[in-house]
Amino acid sequence: MRLLHTSDWHLGRSFHRVGMLGAQAEFIGHLVTTVRERDVDAVLVAGDVYDRAVPPLAAVELFDDALHRLADLGVPTVMISGNHDSARRLGVGAGLIGRAGIHLRTEPSACGTPVLLRDASGDVAVYGLPYLEPALVKDEFALDKPGHEAVLAAAMDRVRADLATRAPGTRSVVLAHAFVTGGEASDSERDITVGGVASVPAGVFDGVDYVALGHLHGCQTLTDRVRYSGSPLAYSFSEAEHRKSMWLVDLDADGAVTAERVDCPVPRAPARIRGRLDDLLADPALARHEEAWIEATLTDPVRPHDPMARLTERFPHALSLVFEPERTPDEPRVSYSRRLADRSDQEIAEDFVTHVRGAGPDAAERAVLRDAFDAVRADRTLREATP
Questions:
Q1: Cβ 9 vs Cβ 27: under 8 Å
Q2: Cα–Cα distances in Å, from 141 out to 44, 105, 112, 152, 322?
Q3: Is 268 in contact with 278 (CB distance < 8 Å)?
Q4: pTM across the whole model
């Protein structure tokens, strides 16, 4: 069976205030063409269909168009909700839409109920595990102290229990939206840390033939059977070096996996450049970036006059300026934003306590901070999910 694995469409998202709807429509067209021309048997969409819980109308219209085009091909599609989606909104009409071969899996209670596909070699059970916010699904899985690993382990127990009732030789596929240990993050994913932990081990998915992951925006292979497709478009400059693609996965009669990357259209490549402004404007090696979206880090010791206007004379699609002046060794000043880069909310709060009090928080105080951040995150997810 041939599967096309994609995720993280983020319909409705912009790139540094540049609308991406046209590029997203081009990707949908590319997806449909790939399904038709590469003899795909099923499409897997591993969450974050939309960029926010209440998407703009144009994004909903594009999603509607995608559903109709996929249904017209007669190729089954299995789709889960991600942490950016409102599971309830995305799942509206799921039963009716399922009759057209578009299977929306947004309810945690249905984790152990597969979409059954069939080819000449027998059945393939496809299980959709939507993004599981631990605080909101702990009762569903009867957990006293929820965390990402605990809820995913409980969901996978249901998958394995159902799979054990299937005919011998039934192959299995799981869609999940999670941060799996070993994956490389970018700047454009929303933090999902709970209890100080964001990631789960890949071993939680043991026992199935293929795991189609969503959430991280870079295409990645964690094991031969556990992969991220990544987002089809770049949504931050941290993705400038990404090769955007989908996975074309062949599942043979014994459940063995072979996979091929299918490149996605690139509407305009993002690029990061760095140096003094005059050097950036004169460097012939940067000619290849003149039509790219640009993030320029200026290292001039003194901020140049009108830098963006000058930069856009050569790079008309420059979108972001960062200032990091060159300094001598005795001037190790680091910008506030740079000090915060790659630090979690928890770490920033703990640093603030240290700064104000002169001593960092103890274990009990760190636990209070952690619980507070978890509660805020759960409340935000609940509010986004509530119509």
A1: yes
A2: 25, 17, 12, 10, 46
A3: no
A4: 0.85
| Contact (CB, 8 A) for 241 and 272 | no
Cα gap 31→15, rounded to integer Å: 21
Q: Where are the alpha helices (DSSP H) in the chain?
A: 21-37, 57-73, 87-90, 94-98, 134-137, 148-163, 277-282, 307-314, 336-340, 345-357, 363-385
Find all residues with CB under 8 Å of 183, minimum gap 6, and list them.
199, 213, 216, 218, 220, 222, 228
Alpha helices in 236-344 (DSSP H): 277-282, 307-314, 336-340
Give the SS3 label for residue 332: coil
**Best CA proximity match to 349, nearest among 338, 335, 360:** 360
> Locate tokens 């799979």: which residue?
163
Q: Which two tokens stand for residue 95?
A: 């039963």
- Bridge-based pairing state of the strands 14-15 and 18-19: antiparallel
Which tokens sit at 300?
């001039």
Q: How far apart are the first and last CA of the chain?
A: 38
Share of the chain above pLDDT 90, in %: 79
pLDDT at 209 over 80: yes
The model's pLDDT over 63-114, given as tens digits with 9 standing for 90+, comes to: 999 999 999 999 999 999 999 999 999 999 999 999 999 999 999 999 999 9
Give the integer Cα–Cα distance in Å for 106 and 63.
16
* Single-letter amino acid code for the residue at 333: R
119: left (phi over 0), alpha (psi -120 to 50) or beta: beta
The residue whose two tokens read 């955007």 is 244
Q: What is the pLDDT of residues 143-172, one digit of tens each?
A: 998 899 999 999 999 999 999 999 999 999
Structure tokens at 227: 């992969």
